[in-house]
Amino acid sequence: MGCYVMTADTTNTRDEMIARIIQYVMEKLPGDESPIIKDFLKHYYMRVSPDDLGSRSILDLYGAVVSYWHFIYQRLPGEIKIRVYNPNLEEHGWQSPHTVIEISTDERPFIIDSVRLALTREGFNIDLLIHLSGICFRRDPSGNVIAMGAAKECIKQDFITETPLYIEIDRQSDIATLNRIRDIINEVISDVDIIVRDWKPMQAQAVACIKFLQQEITVQPASAADLADVIAFMQWIADDHFTFLAFARYKFSNKDDDNKLEYIPESALGLFSKKSRIPTVCNFKNMAAMTRQVYLSKERLMIGKTKVISTIHRPTHEDFISVKFFDTTGMLAEVWRFVGLYTAVAYTSAPKSIPYICKKIDAVFAISGFNQNTHDGKALLNIIDTLPRDDLFHATAQELHDLAIGVLFLQERQKIRLFIRKDIYGQYFSCLVYVPRDRFNSSLRQRMQNILQTELGGSSVDFSTKFSESILARIHFVVRVDPFVETQYSVEDIEAKLVESARTWNDDLHDALHESFGEEKANILMEDYSEAFPAGYCESFTARNAVIDIEHIEKLLANPAISLAMSLYRPIEDKESSCRFKLFRVDKPFPLSDVVPMLENMGLRIISERPYHIRRNGNSNDKVWVNDYRMLQPSGKILSPELVKNIFQEAFAAVWCGLVENDRFNRLVLSAMLTWREVAVIRAYFKYLWQTGLGFSQTSVEDALYNNSQVSKKLVAFFLKRFEIMPHKNEPVRQETLASYKSAILQELEEVKSLNEDRILRKFLHTIEATIRTNYFQLTCMATQNPIFLLN
């Protein structure tokens, strides 16, 4: 958690700027006005950070404070002054890039927070807020300021404590918007006035409620224990643990079996005294079944959340506390309803110090059978203490037990768990999700929020997060739902979806490694590769792809003699005329200028290339580069990686290592499915023919062989049949076979449309026929890596 430290430098900077503004004031304003505005200015800009002061010119700071002073200079007692405008030099004598809001009113609690809340709720971004809470003014009968002082001087006679408030928001040029902002602020301040006015009367109603409950104990001693708990809680509420916003009493009516709670108009206090918030008649027929059941039960205390989001102090749903009173027959007579917000103390106090919650905690331990002094008992109590406070207020003892025990049994394990509690009035679901801290991020929270809203049929979702020394982070989701709609859900199914939403690429990698290598080796490899793959790789490839790549990398690292590893493949989503080619190399990537010509000479067009730097964990020396090429067959022919993978990769390796030339004869690898050594046969015959005066360029010969790939393949087959290694036991049969090979070639040549290509191919056929000996099959001889032929 960061904090702003006011250093001597920043303090001096601010003091210097204030001194400059004061000097400007003394020079520009009349002598009788400047002394008092000088004192005001000191208080005013002392509430502003040096950074905000430094971002504005002296002229703008002078204009802002003088304009604001003139605005608040005259105000009658109790008057609320609000101005919303866009200052410009011609009309106002100063200018600002922002819309300015100026407020002057008597000091009231919650004013600053409530105004800020209202602006934020309406979507206005606050750029600067200056408040002088606690400053005092003495005004003449006309309301003009004649003296001012700080808070400690407010005890002087005729001084009034006020709350001047200056706000800058993002500029709004529409006049209707400016008027709406003024109306919103005016309504908020009016609400605060009502609350302040009725604060003591509402608190007195809480005290009166306590007295009535105490009187019932004398009449019905049998219910003393239950009533004592309610009295203790109401006393706690009255002792400044609850910010009262509204109060009203309801009378129960049961005419013609039509159960109703009728609002008693003269009882309304606080916001319930406003026409817009007058409580309506509560007809039990219009209540959700769960709510109706609670009202008709003998439980004295009803605690929950309203549907209304507070416009005062904090942006949260208002809390309500309802106390039921019964007549002598045991029939419901009245309901006293208090609406407000629990104070900060109520949320930070130890749960066992809160009467109503304390009883629930005792019930939880009674259900669990744990002793609070044992290890498990202390752990359980700690879990209860750290649960969301609203859950402690609203949940039953059994619900709290199930939740706390579930968290206890989680035992700090690295797993995701979901706990769901439905509000007793059916208005919301309280969902606690425990997530390993290293998995938590805002994206995961949003995915989980969407799942919960969808599965539970929510209209909106609020959330809060909690981090502690635990390895688990906790997210509290409150999913608002329609109480009249019965939601069918399975905690197990929703939890499974949350788990799936939190799965990472590394989770998939661990599972894929386990599937391929078994548990022991998978764990070893996971240690090496859990952080090895960059984000770009993880976005482009699945974990199963990574397992294949890991195999290549492991072989490459295990044998330094291997200079490269390869993988020709095609993703299922790619077209049949395309394929991908991965190259693996230790220490440095493959230069694009080296690889692309080789692949293009093999008849491919390169669409894209992406390099990935793989670093095995724990060994910074193990650096492997993976270059992934996306390639296309220009002719649109189908490429079948499963058929050409081996011959293609062997041919590329031979070119890369310099065993064969990098020319367009290599296109025959894919077009005719010839190995690199078979292509070398074709290349060797061309070299011979060139020396004998063939009369055609290498390009023409390459094109002739590529355009007639089937003839090229049969020429190589004819060559191999002529010089096969095994002795020929039946020479007549062999000659007959060769004749059939030649006949097939000649038949193919009849279909060649180009005369030049026909002449080139026939030259190759005649030269092969003229060959009497070859070293092609002497694989152990280094010289035979490039075939040498003897011809007659």
Question: Major sheet: size, sense and barrel closure?
Answer: 7 strands, antiparallel
Count of DSSP H/I helices: 28
What's the Cα radius of gyration? 43 Å
Which class of secondary structure composition applies to the elements? alpha+beta
Low-confidence stretches: 1-8, 788-792
Spatial shape: elongated
Helix content: 40-55%
Q: How many beta-strand elements?
A: 24
Q: What is the averaged pLDDT score?
A: 88
Outline the structure in words.
- The chain is an alpha+beta fold and 792 residues long.
- The chain has 28 helices and 24 strands.
- The strands form 6 sheets. Strands 8, 9, 10, 11, 12, 13 and 14 form a 7-stranded antiparallel β-sheet that branches. A 4-stranded antiparallel β-sheet has the order 1-2-7-3, sandwiched between helices. A 4-stranded antiparallel β-sheet has the order 15-16-18-17, with helices on both faces.
- Strand 12 and strand 13 (317-326) form a beta hairpin.
- The longest helix is centred in the first third of the chain and has 45 residues, at 175-219.
- Mean pLDDT is 88; it is low at 1-8 and 788-792.
Outline of the structure:
The protein has 792 residues and is α+β, with helices and mostly antiparallel strands. It contains 28 helices and 24 strands. The longest helix has 45 residues, at 175-219.
